[in-house]
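Troubleshooting: if your tokenizer reports a length mismatch, compare your output against this known-good record of 425 residues.
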Amino acid sequence: MTDPWVALEPGADPAERVRVLRRAHETFAVAGTVPQPVRSVVADSWRRSARAGVGPEGTANVELTDGDLGVYRAQHPLARVMPLIRELMGTFAADGEHLLAVCDAQGRLLWVEGHPATRRKAGRMNFVPGARWAESAVGTNAPGTAVAVDRPVQVFAAEHFIRRVQPWTCAAAPVHDPRTGRVLGAVDITGGDGLAHPHSLGFVQAVARAAESQLALLAPEQTSVDGPELTALGRDEAQLCVDGRKMRLSRRHSEILVLLARHPEGLTGDELLCALYEDESVPPVTLRAELARLRRLLGPGLLASRPYRLTLPVESDVAIVERRLEGGAVTGAATAYTGPLLPGSQAPAVVRLRARLADGLRTALIARRDPDLLADWAHAPWGEDDLDVWRALAAMRPTAPVRSRLAALESELAAPGTWSRGRGR
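Known-good structure output:
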């Protein structure tokens, strides 16, 4: 197969492929091994699904209904481009007896529209607005896997992890915020085996790109008084936006800007050395060389010295989360938190800040006792091993998948030689 993201190569027999995939799925369920010809993207997803405690007989949980769903949808950024998505996908879905669906970044379905009979059939497996179809909640499926791996994906029949979903085929593509690059959700087309074609994958990808272009047009224009913006959560290399110009920074430059943004008064060379390097033998000339390269990248006037400081206030996603936590806006803080701060960084000051931010937010979520917020954290990559959050979620929402995952974590904790795990850091 030339494209591993497409479910069926030209000329393949769908019925025979279904039989092969069902045997492979049974083998995985029993032995935990993935035989050929299961695609690598599907095999990886099956393994993630199993680690998340998803069972092949599971079902999706409906987490938002009625007024709560309406309010959440109205406030979601993708609501602004739903007219465009309907225009591009609606007729195709209705005429082909398919469904168009849009989910948020946590895999929660916001809109499910299309052929009435197909909607009723999909409703029997809770493929409905407000249901969580994250990969970590219901296993391999196109919208959930698309946001998990952040790329367009097609899932054919028995490639789905949960058996009741295996009669379906779907294709989905993530939609990104055009300013920050973070995933907002995904657009999906769901229906029968006829969707196992390269055209359906290209179709949803084109719709996602159109939605991103529309979002960029709808975004308020930056005014001249707006300062630089730094995005460093959930990514190893930060992004800096200055005067409409986006710059992807190296890891070391990312660390420097994160620290200088937190210290508008500036830091001395010695303070930066201690903050950035565990090895005390690193000479000051190494840091000066990094700062010289950073100054050339930023352009004249933004990075000053003696002490090292930024000449303009830099807004960062870290500061936004901290301000919202300090003000008690836990939901807003959780929404702004798109992952651990520079997760690959080993700079001592960044490690401390990363832990402090994550622990502060998770503590606030546990105290808030909102099951949706707890579920968002628990099903995120940084929360999948967070025992305290899973315990809090199980107390609020004791569904079978939640109890199963909690039992697995507690079993790991009780095993000899096991120590408490990542806690979302």
